[in-house]
Amino acid sequence: MKGHRISYWLFVRIPFWVLFLSLALVTLLKWVPVRYTPLMLKRAFQFRNEENYHSEQKWVSLEDIAPELIQAVVAAEDQKFCSHHGFDWEEMQAMWQSHRQEGTPLRGCSTISQQTAKNVFTFATPTWSRKVVEAWWTILIETIWGKDRILEVYLNVAETGKGLYGVEAATVCYYDLTAADISTKQAVALAVCLPHPLRSNPIEPSAYDRAKRSRMMDSLDIKRLND
User: Fold this and answer.
1) Is 212 within 8 Å of 192 (Cβ atoms)?
2) CA-to-CA separations, 173 to 48, 132, 163, 193, 221, in angstroms, rounded
3) What is the count of structural domains for the chain?
4) Are residues 3 and 64 in the same domain?
5) Which strands make up the sheet holding 56-57, listed edge to edge?
6) Are residues 13 and 44 in the same domain?
7) What do you get for the CA distance between the two ends of the chain, in Å?
8) 104 with 204, same domain?
9) Angle separating helix axes 112-121 and 67-77, nearest 10 degrees
10) Could you tell me if 166 and 97 lie in one domain?
11) What is the CATH number of the domain that holds 107?
12) Residue 92: which residues within 8 A CB-CB, separation 6 or more?
């Protein structure tokens, strides 16, 4: 009898409540701005001994972000964002094949949807268990939020510098401009720093970042000519 009760909780009650609470939270955040994330809490603890450290985030709607900035972020982080359903299977397959055949290191291949799920619902620990949890939340936000909301949340919670979260806080800090007013060149400079925001600065770019900026500017110019 006791074993039956344990099995009932393990395979019925707990999965039910996990599903119910996950759906409730994701549905709520479809409409409510995400003001604080586990990553922000993690960074606050990480830099707790630094007297001048503080978090800065300014929530803005997708309509109040320059199209050039949105385009640059998608180009830098996830060019297939509008066509995939949360996971870039082709990229993951290519990465795995390269790893097996050439011994190249495994890499994340994370889409914007996965990065949003990671930032909003996990502590971004570099573990495979986190990737499993991240995949669960990715499926939910792709299903419930849709692309526009995922992009809006990502652009408001992505780490954009030490203590900076979201593109509005970043554009104010680096350019003294709002996210609606920056130029294409500034947008590209900011987007290039997203993969490593604690090591990169759009005002003082490394040689690698400058080269990536140049490639992105050429790509965006070509896209405009083809539109």
Assistant:
1) yes
2) 21, 35, 11, 14, 27
3) 2
4) no
5) 56-57, 164-165, 159-161
6) no
7) 67
8) yes
9) 100
10) yes
11) 1.10.3810.10
12) 109
Same domain flag for 27 and 64: no
Query: How many separate helices (H) and strands (E) can be counted in the chain?
Result: 11, 3
Size of the chain, expressed as the number of residues it contains: 227
d(CA 119, CA 186): 24
Alpha carbon distance 181, 146 (integer Å): 26
Range of the domain at 69: 36-226
Residue 8 has which token pair?
């009932």
Whether 63 contacts 156, CB under 8 Å: no
DSSP state of 86: S
Which DSSP string corresponds to 133-185? HHHHHHHHHHHHT-HHHHHHHHHHHSEEETTEESHHHHHHHHHSS-TTT--HH
Q: Cα dihedral sign for 71, 74, 77, 79?
A: negative
What pTM did the predictor assign?
0.88
How far apart, in whole angstroms, are the C-alpha atoms of residue 137 and residue 121?
A: 7
Q: Which residue has the tokens 């299903």?
A: 143
Look at strands 164-165 and 159-161 and give their pairing.
antiparallel
Q: What is the pLDDT along the chain (227 residues), one digit of tens a residue?
A: 566 677 766 667 788 888 999 999 999 999 999 999 999 999 999 999 998 899 999 999 999 999 999 999 999 999 899 999 888 777 767 666 665 666 655 555 789 999 999 999 999 888 888 889 999 999 999 999 999 999 999 999 999 999 999 999 999 999 999 999 999 999 999 999 999 999 998 999 899 999 989 888 887 754 553 44
